[in-house]
Amino acid sequence: MTASLLRTALALLSLGLCGVLEATISCRNEEGDAVDWFTFYKLPKRQDQESRKTGLEYLYLDSTTRSWRRSKQLMNTTKSALGRTLEQLYKAYASKNNTAYLMYNDGVPKSVNYSRKYGHTKGLLLWNKVQGFWLIHSIPQFPPIPEEGYGYPPSGRRNGQIGICITFKYNQYEAIDSQLLVCNPNIYSCSIPATFHQELAHIPQLCARSSPSEMPGRHLASLQSAQGQNFLHFAKSDSFLDDIFVAWMAQHLKTHLLTETWQRKRQQLPSNCSLPYHVYNIKAIKISGHSYFSSHQDHAKWCVSQKRTKNRWTCIGDLNRSPYQALRSGGFICTQNQHIYQAFQGLVLYYENCN
Q1: Catalytic residue (one of 202, 233, 299, 339)
Q2: How many Cβ atoms are within 10 Å of 311's Cβ, its own excluded?
Q3: Where is the signal peptide (predicted)?
Q4: What are the residue ranges spanned by the domains of the chain?
């Protein structure tokens, strides 16, 4: 092969590889670039000037940054991190290729019905035989079905909301498959091509709403993102009749946890110091300077290790600290990533001690 032909072949190969990389499913930032993971905190709708009264601003952190930054886009635009990431779903749906997706929410879009038969879980998975992403969030009635394209529900504006997107290689989906079984999500839109049915035992059943005969009370899985970030996922079924934070997560992680969950009147559990590792309710979240909001304005579900604790964990997930939620299935994904920990620890304004 002559030098010119070799250069041409290498150039074509390079272009082909670039095309493959660009087409790879991944979490995306506001510029549309692939990122290993991102987390967002949608701020509640407030009456001060800083929040601009829309209830659509959010804080953003991803694998390429070190701390929270204010979003450049609003949550309801296709140029937001969620809009960019979900764009891959709509393109895959339109092309009808061998891409699988699963959308679940206990509050289904455009529905007033709310069923406690399924887990208190909200999320979306999109993947192919190479890789995909798992988006876990707290937003009711989100996202719209693929036929409708991207949109953000009015019901998600008033309160604070949270989410985390993680990019996973396909070899992680067998473990995710088992976690979803335990969480028992309310699936409202899905497509699982036959090519995945042999390797993923439970997701096709969940998509078909076929209930398994047996389900473990709880299950813990170790996961690794596409770029090697380690995560733990705790999944509990409705047969595990206890507060997931106190009875399992804090004791397993060996850390005192500060928890932020929706604090509705007469539907919250008090801080708990009955076991070796304690769980405290966060009462106010600091945004910046003198700007803060109350847990009563927050629909997010997350926890972070107390500062003085050696094991520094951050977890984002599905369940509130409530007597009723102890009866529901759901889960949390946890990481010891130092930037995520510092970002969430910096949000804690004050928390409730044990009585």
Answers
A1: 299
A2: 12
A3: 1-23
A4: 25-352
Instruction: For residues 297 and 213, give the distance between their C-alpha atoms in angstroms, rounded to a whole number.
Output: 39
DSSP string spanning 175-228?
A: HHHHHHHHH---EEEEE--GGGTTT-SSHHHHHTT---S---SEEEEEEE-TT-
43 touches 53 (CB < 8 A): no
Distances (CA, A) of 13 to 6, 7, 10, 76, 343: 10, 10, 5, 38, 41
Tokens of 52: 């601009």
C-alpha dihedral sign at 129, 134, 135, 140: positive
Enclosing H/E stretch for 82: helix 81-95
For residues 256 and 236, what is the distance between their CA atoms, to the nearest angstrom? 20
User: Tokens 């769980």 map to which residue?
Assistant: 279
Work out the end-to-end distance of the chain between its first and last CA atoms, rounded to an integer number of angstroms: 80
Structure tokens at 92: 């895959």
pTM of the model: 0.92
Residue 225 CA from chain centroid, whole number: 13
List the Cα angle 136/142/143 in 5-degree steps. 90
**Tens-digit pLDDT profile for the chain (355 aa)?**
455 544 444 444 443 443 343 469 999 999 999 999 999 999 999 755 554 568 999 999 999 999 999 999 999 999 999 999 999 999 999 988 889 999 999 999 988 777 778 999 999 999 999 999 999 999 999 999 999 999 999 989 999 999 999 999 999 999 999 999 999 999 999 999 999 999 999 999 999 988 776 788 999 999 999 999 999 999 999 999 999 999 999 999 999 999 999 987 777 899 999 999 999 999 999 998 778 999 989 999 999 999 988 899 999 999 999 999 999 999 999 999 999 999 999 999 999 999 7
Query: What are 187's strand-pairing partners?
Result: 104
197 catalytically annotated: no
